[in-house]
Amino acid sequence: MPFGKIHLEFELLRARTVAEVLPTPGEPLAGSGSAVADAMAHLINTRPLQESTWPGCRVCIVFTGNTRACPDHVLVPALLRELEGTGVGERRFFS
To answer: Could you tell me if residue 6 is inside a domain?
Structure first.
C-alpha cells in the first residue's frame, strides 16, 4: 500500500473486505486564491469565523500530514487573512 514516499506491507485476516479507494480526478482550479476566498465565505455546516472568534482569542491551526496532498501554501495564508479580519492577532496563533 502506498504511504507517502514508501510502501507498507501487511497481512489481513481472510474475513476482512479490502477495497482501494482512489480520489476522483478533477481539473485544477485556475484561480485557487479566489476559490479559497469563496469557500471561506460560504462554509458548510459550521459558523463563519467572525462568529467563532473574537479579538484576542487564541487559535490553533492543525495541518494535514505529509501523506495527504493539501495545498497549504494556498489555504494557510487565506485562513490567516480571514482570522486577522476577525481581530485575532498574529501572536495569538498556535501551530
So the answer is: no
